[in-house]
Amino acid sequence: MTLFQRLLVVLIAWLATAGIVPDAMAAEFYTEDLRIPMAEARPQGLEAFLVRPAGTKRYPLALLSHGSPRSFDDRATMSAPKYYGIALEYARRGFAALIVMRRGYGTSPGGRVDSVGGCANAAYLPAAAVAVADLRAAIDAMARRADVTTSGMIAAGHSAGGLATVALTAQAPAGLVAAVSFAGGRGSRDDDDVCNPDGLVQAFATFGKTSRVPMLWVYATNDSYFGPDLARRLHDGFRTGGGNAKFVAAPPYGDDGHYLYSVVGRPQWTPYLDAFLRERSLGHDILSPPDPLPPPSQLNEAARGEFARYLASTMLHKAFAVSPNGGYGWRSGRATADDAQRDSLGACMKWSPACTLYAIDDKLAGAAQRTLTDQSARAR
Fold first, then answer.
1. What phi, psi does 228 have (nearest 5°)?
2. In terms of pTM, does the model score above 0.85?
3. I need a surface site. Which of 21, 185, 205, 313 has the fewest CB within 10 A?
């Protein structure tokens, strides 16, 4: 068995652990970079990224909310396409998954607009109100699309995005039928050190007074941000106010359970999501991911192994470039498809001056370019 074949076997096995049937006809998915119009974020709008099954129907919205890094400076390194692997899981279940970068994150303007203030007296309700305003702007934008419906939509968030999702249910927009919070909270400045934890509990209790949307809350028992005791306090406060949330104490995950909700952690968290969705007759049969692409014919065995790594990467945007003599270069996790193409060509041209694009994201370059052209035509 060649190196490429061994890597392909590993890739198929990895896909199987995520609940993907490798011999099924793989589904096509549509992706799009967006800017969400919002008066407070003009003229740029909010950065966003959409993933949905290909087709002409309207897919129910899955509104996905990101966390907040402990260091403010790390916010600038965040981007919506980096959540492609997570968003794809919702798209595979029949949703139009939208990850929106709230104000002050990624390229969304806003600075410290969602600050909780000083640690000792951290104020979580005003910060949550900012997040909810951003999420509502995204919902309004999606409601105007021909390929998305906000009827029967769900919301899901991680960490600070979990808090934002819970806050959204307290002012539930029309059409929101279920919500999920993974490791929801805010204010962690170090392991097992949360600013004004009593204030955080009180904020969740306040949300519970008006939240009636069915929710799923998942916390790993080795979460370093919001440990088991605090997680239970947050849930108890929410339930005391009248909130409707099922609590799952997930087994320990890796070195830090706060990152259970990740691409690598999919085999552990997707069963919780699927059970929750099935109970409410939401979502559809799980679709397989995009078809694996054949390797360029001019690659040798070692280079084919590198192409297998490209296929396994769930970091959009990505591109793979190749030269006639078998040279190659690829890059992933770029802000745009154009950036990925430029950087992969640059990497390839270190070995050969005659490089061309072979793949862009999950499509052969020709098909990907046609898709980009079609999107541009629709945008005009």
1. -55, -40
2. no
3. 21
